[in-house]
Amino acid sequence: MKNAKEIRQSFIDFFVGKEHTFVRSSPVVPNDDPTLMFTNAGMNQFKTIFLGENPKNLKRAVNSQKCMRVSGKHNDLEEVGVDHYHHTFFEMLGNWSFGDYYKKEAIVWAWELLTDVWKLPKDKLYATVYKNDDEAKNIWETLTDIDKTHISKHGEKDNFWEMGETGPCGPCSEIHIDLGVGSCPRENDETHKCGVNGDNCHRFLELWNLVFIQYERQKDGSLKELPAKHIDTGMGFDRVVRVIQGLNSNYDNDLFSPIIKKLEELSGKKYSAGDKTGIPFRVIADHARALTFAITDGVFPSNEGRGYVLRRLLRRAYRYGRQLDFSSPFIYKLIPVVVEMMGEAYPEIKERAEFTASVIKSEEERFDATLETGIEKFNCALENAKKAGKTEICGADVFSLYDTYGFPADLTNLLAQENGFTIDESGFAEEMKIQKERARAARNSAEDDFCADGWKIIVTDGVSEFAGYSQNVVENASVNRYKIINENRALAVFAKTPFYAEMGGQIGDTGSVKNGDFTARVTDTLTWNGMSVSVIESDFSLDDNFFTTSKLTLEIDNCRRAEIRRAHSATHLLQAALTQVLGNHVSQAGSKVESGKIRFDFTHFQAVSKSEIEKVENIVNSWILQNYEIRTDEMGIEEAKASGAKALFGEKYGDRVRVVKMADVSAEFCGGTHAQRTGDIGTFTILSEASVSAGVRRIEAVVGFEALNLHKKQTQILSQISDLLKCARESVPEKIEIMRQKIRTLENELKAANLNAAKDNVERIISSVKNGSKVSFAICNLGETSKEIFVAIHDGVSEAIISKDIKNVAICLIAEVSGAVMIAASADKTANANGILCGDLVKKAAAVVGGGGGGTPLKAQAGGKNPSKIGDAIKELKNLLS
Q: Could you say which DSSP state residue 113 is in?
């Protein structure tokens, strides 16, 4: 029986033998497509080719692509692990034709691989085609020996593939396999009929989707023929491994079984695929794999975007770990197993294994406290339902637990059932719907300008050449494609451009586009689907003539670019200095290089001390003063790696790369723009250092004129302070310390005076106690006072009742403190026995002033928002005491 590694390689070898080029997987984080949170299909990295840009003239391709589907329309997170075939991370095997072969070869080769190479039983295979695709149906019938009764036609839902609401699309042909009687849990359901494309039928499993891309969906819903017809196929790797190995579950294949075995070893529990006790094993195994690949490719758990998705995955897995009796971090221990299984095909996870495990362990430790908080939140929701006289926890609370604390609805439902409650599933579904609509609206707004619809293509297969390494101006420029958004805003892809498109952390260039007497502004330049797109704005009406009637002059904002160059070169020096000071574990986890400003995220597991920051800053500035030459060389990727140059994890590099070298200090793969010498940077100043997420720190810094302006401003402020203190600049710290000591002395004297006054008040309050029918009591309005004095008087009263052995007494205090109300009560045990409980007193009085609180029967404190109700609160206390 073939193992997973052999199956993957046999797929690649088969298509390489059909003259396909093997293309390595792109990262799970799409760096050049703002419309995607994660790479969710093999074709993502080829979108630009489908849209008409094919700079490498690629005709045929094959690969195994790393994918994640945990957001948007592909979000089936709650099904992952519950069933046996949904996954967050998965590999997509695929082969492509870009304007080369079409339906005939795609179908015939697919059949050859499945039946001749992998030896799948022909009588178990079925093919579907689009309802009016007679061409594909005829190919199946005449060029393969599939059973003709196993070919069926279907509509748009099942057999018409679309990338999104707009973009490349076309009919498809799917290949299914019949897994046999007993494989569908609904086969005895009278309302269900097992069949291909049946309603949630598990017997007929889709193996491979062959997409015939020939259209481009427009924004108005119409279809436009593409300049060339393409093939895009996709086959879920876990699924086909399961079928070839003759297994009942994806989780039984040799990609997952070693992870599950490790979980058995760690937990001391046995995995059972056939009942609910197997769910935690599958959830954790799936999520451990997803976390490994996403963190390797540069995503870190956080509270926003991709990082938030990762945090939810980790917390979901950790929560399921409780069902296996894990009470401390354990997921990180699974990473070596994932690496062992998949590190050969994806060596990047092997290179970062130790770091990935460290990030996961740190995040697990964080979640321990959050989990307990979530359970407290559940208990509050339970209490709210009880108070409302309901036996159902409302949908908003279920959603809050899900969204904020990572509690899936099934966990909340389980906790509810243990307490004799249910959850409002419809209310939760409505909250989820609202969230998805918000996410969809956000995606649509991001996609509007850059969607495939509306582009006017002048040059098909035009290569956009970046000339900005050596040129600030490009004259006689032509346009490959453009899109007019409104009369004052447009997008353009130039054949040759000096504008650097935002990539690798460096922001995009700005500048101007001139056509005769008309000059428009370039306000940004972005990377979209592998193309450099300039955003153009003007004070005049932009039309087709501006882009097509004559040659254009493109010019960058040179002063701004110079500041960006300084910042980018300083970023390389900063990473080198951090590595020198903190250790070799430091690697870049993200960056933003702006005009004179740097934001640099790096891997490190504790705060960087002030002395370390000072060392880093001094090292960078010493390298700047050394005025090293900054060399940029283009070389083959293997040569670059052998030279010791650092690559950024999560980036996909071509066969040739640019290496930026600064003496023996720094050497990195980098496609950005840089200064000519380190001395051009001018000066470097660190502004701040802070935590971004588990295992990731962030430094913000300024360089060049930004740093000089900062120093100038700081000097001016220091001069103002020295003038106010009437001392020399160098004496300012000493002078301030003397003032601090004086202030501290005065504060202590004031505190002592307040405490003495409080003691006098205590005596007065004790002497004001009057006899009541059951207890003696006093109610004292202290007027406006400070919290410190109020607390001191309250403590003094409580201590006096004990020290003077005052029996059967209750004393209440009330005051206005900083615009709010404070209420306190003290009593002895005899008063308690007679029904006077301090906690009840202050709670009821606080309700009158719009607040709450409590404490023990002997001593309690509360607060409220409405000082105008103090009189009413005093009446309430009198009623309670008398």
A: I
- pLDDT tens across 164-173, in order? 677 778 999 9
Q: In the beta sheet, which residues pair with residue 126? A: 176
Residue with tokens 């201590």: 799
Q: Of the ranges 31-45, 462-476, 479-493, 636-650, which one carries the lowest mean pLDDT score?
A: 31-45
Taking residues 775-791, report their average pLDDT. 90
169-186 exposure pattern, b = at least 16 Cβ within 10 A, e = fewer: bbbbbbbbbbbeeeebeb
Give the residue from 673, 666, 667, 641 showing the smallest Cα distance to 655: 641
* pLDDT at residue 644 tops 90: no
Q: Which two tokens stand for residue 66?
A: 């790393």
Closest among 179, 85, 173, 174 to 124, alpha carbons compared: 179
Which DSSP category does 76 fall into?
Answer: -
Residue 344 structure tokens: 């050969």
- Pairing mode, if any, of strands 859-864 and 852-855? antiparallel
pLDDT at 772: 76
Contacts of 844 (CB under 8 A, 6+ apart): 876, 880
Residue 446 has pLDDT above 70, yes or no: no
Tokens of 762: 């205590």
Instruction: Give me the residue label for tokens 């770990």.
Output: 321
Exposure class string for 76-87: b at 16+ Cβ within 10 A, else e: ebeebbeebbbb
In the structure, what pLDDT confidence band is assigned to residue 645 with cuts at 50, 70 and 90? confident
Q: Token pair for residue 218? A: 């427009």
Residue entry with tokens 């900005």? 468
Query: What is the chain's percent helix, strand, coil content, to nearest 5?
Result: 45, 25, 30
Q: Residue by residue, what is the 3-state secondary structure of 552-601?
A: EEEEECHHHHHHHHHHHHHHHHHHHHHHHHHCCCCCEEEEEECCCEEEEE
Closest-CA residue to 29 (of 289, 238, 287, 295):
295
Shortest CA distance to 555 belongs to which of 588, 521, 530?
Answer: 521
Q: How far apart, in Å, are the Cα atoms of 394 and each of 427, 599, 648?
A: 7, 43, 46
- Looking at this protein, which amino acid is placed at residue 759? K
Between strands 125-130 and 151-154, the pairing is: parallel
* CA dihedral of residues 403, 409, 410, 413 (deg, nearest 10): 130
pLDDT tens per residue, range 730-755: 999 999 999 999 999 998 898 888 77
pLDDT tens-digit map of 342-387? 999 999 999 889 889 988 998 888 877 777 777 878 888 888 888 8
Residue 19: the pLDDT is 96
First to last CA, the chain: 88
Look at residue 452 in the predicted model and tell me its pLDDT: 61
Q: Which residues contact 335 (CB under 8 A, 6 or more apart)?
A: 288, 292, 353, 356, 357, 360
657 and 676 Cβ atoms separated by less than 8 Å: no
Asked whether the predicted pLDDT for residue 445 surpasses 60, the reply is no
Query: How far is it, in rounded angstroms, from Cα 565 to Cα 506?
Result: 9
